[in-house]
């Protein structure tokens, strides 16, 4: 399957993409730990089947020092011992927030209570926006069939304006 469309090569797509990136940049600059951000983006991308996003976030996490074992176990985080309780709460929120059609209640009260236990209000705001933004990015990638495998870490550095 070939990629259908390069959103960033289109004038309107690039204009919208820059604003989309700036929302993601605000999340990145929050106090939500970068490790948690990477894990959440990987898990949502796995669930949504976005090869490009999974490639990008796995490589960025590795470049930031994340271990190969933890990266390999993100999909099986419940059956793993390598994630903290705070990371587990964020991964649960990522899953429930990504699988809205699969659960009538959306994010469960139990998951929300775990998130409240481990994160402050600013971090929760960033985490909620992060789940929404990575799901949107996944949908963009899947719709236009962006392929994973060729991402180079740091490619988006310097796009902040």
Give the low-pLDDT segments: none
Q: Structural class, from helix and strand content?
A: mainly alpha
Percent helix:
55-70%
Instruction: Give the C-level CATH assignment.
Output: Mainly Alpha
Q: Note the run of SSEs as H and E.
A: HHHHHHH
CATH topology: AhpD-like
Q: How many structural domains can be distinguished in the coordinates?
A: 1
- DSSP helix count? 7
Pfam families: CMD (PF02627)
Organism: Actinomadura verrucosospora
Keywords: Oxidoreductase, Peroxidase
Domain Carboxymuconolactone decarboxylase-like: 19-96
Write the layout of secondary structure elements.
Blueprint: H1 11-28, H2 34-48, H3 51-63, H4 68-73, H5 85-98, H6 109-118, H7 121-144
Helix pairs in contact: 1-7, 2-3, 2-5, 2-7, 5-6, 5-7
Structure description:
It is a single chain. The chain is an all-alpha fold and 161 residues long. The protein has a single domain (32-144), classed as AhpD-like, CATH 1.20.1290. The chain contains seven helices and no strands. It has helices at 11-28, 34-48, 51-63, 68-73, 85-98, 109-118, 121-144. Helix 2 packs antiparallel against helix 3, helix 2 packs parallel to helix 7 (121-144) and helix 5 crosses helix 6. The longest helix has 24 residues, at 121-144. The chain is globular, with a radius of gyration of 15 Å. The N and C termini lie far apart (33 Å).
């Amino acid at each position: 399957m070939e990629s259908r469309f390069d959103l960033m090569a289109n004038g309107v797509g690039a204009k919208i993409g820059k604003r989309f990136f700036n929302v993601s940049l605000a999340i990145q600059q929050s106090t939500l730990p970068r490790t948690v951000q990477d894990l959440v983006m990987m898990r949502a991308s796995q669930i949504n089947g976005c090869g490009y996003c999974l490639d990008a976030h796995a490589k960025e996490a590795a470049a930031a020092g994340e271990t190969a074992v933890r990266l390999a176990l993100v999909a099986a985080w419940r059956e793993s011992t390598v994630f903290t309780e705070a990371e587990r709460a964020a991964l649960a929120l990522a899953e429930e927030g990504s699988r809205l059609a699969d659960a009538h209640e959306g994010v469960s009260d139990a998951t929300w209570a775990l998130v409240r236990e481990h994160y402050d209000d600013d971090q929760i705001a960033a985490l909620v926006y992060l789940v929404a933004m990575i799901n949107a990015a996944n949908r963009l990638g899947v719709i236009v069939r962006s392929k994973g495998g060729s991402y180079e870490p740091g490619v988006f550095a310097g796009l902040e304006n």
